[in-house]
Amino acid sequence: MTDAATIMVVDDDRAFCAALAGALRRRGMVTVIAHDHDEALSEAEAWRPQRAVVDLRMPGRSGLELVASLREKLPDIQVVVLTGFGSIATAVEAIKLGAVHYLTKPADADEIVAAFARQAGDASVEVASRPTPLEHLEWEHIQNTLLACDGNISEAAKRL
User: Fold this and answer.
1) What is the rounded average pLDDT for all residues in the chain?
2) How many C-beta atoms lie closer than 10 Å to residue 108's C-beta?
3) Kind of pairing, strands 101-104 and 6-10?
4) Distance of CA 87 to the CA centre of its chain
5) Which residue stretches of the chain have pLDDT < 50?
6) Does this model's pTM top 0.90?
């Protein structure tokens, strides 16, 4: 990343947002902070950042909706989705919407900077040798069903 890069950090956790923005500033980046979908779009319009770190779960419109909105408004923006509630379904959807990478919390500033620089997957990543726990598979199924229902909880509950 170049010193002139502007990066927007979007997270409803204000303390985390400030800490991450500070860590990125110490690495020579210009940072912009927002705490929800609408504020992020407003800041993106004003600052035209080249990159954004977007939390998946926020009050109101989700991080996935924000990824789509940012990519519509700024087609060249690179977005890394950061979440404490990772799932395969949301990771796939984030990438489909234009995110360049998807990280689960806790992720430090160096991991986030590296995520923007990655151009391809890493074939050296270890394949899990233990089977996926049933609770995790259930969570994945629920997330897939919810995505298939466009977030309609009542419809997802019927299908489940």
Assistant:
1) 85
2) 12
3) unpaired
4) 12
5) 1-3, 127
6) no
| Structure-token pair, residue 2 | 């170049």
What is the rounded CA–CA span in Å between residue 56 and residue 8? 14
Residue 126: predicted pLDDT = 57
Tokens (6 digits) for 148: 């298939």
The full 3-state SS of 117-159, as one line of letters, equals HCCCCCCCCCCCCCCCCHHHHHHHHHHHHHHHCCCCHHHHHHH
Provide the CB-side half-sphere exposure for 49 (13 A, CA): 26
Inter-CA distances, 61 with 8, 43, 133, 147, Å: 17, 16, 30, 14
- Smallest CA-to-CA distance from 1 within 114, 120, 102 is with 114
Q: What amino acid occupies position 26?
A: R
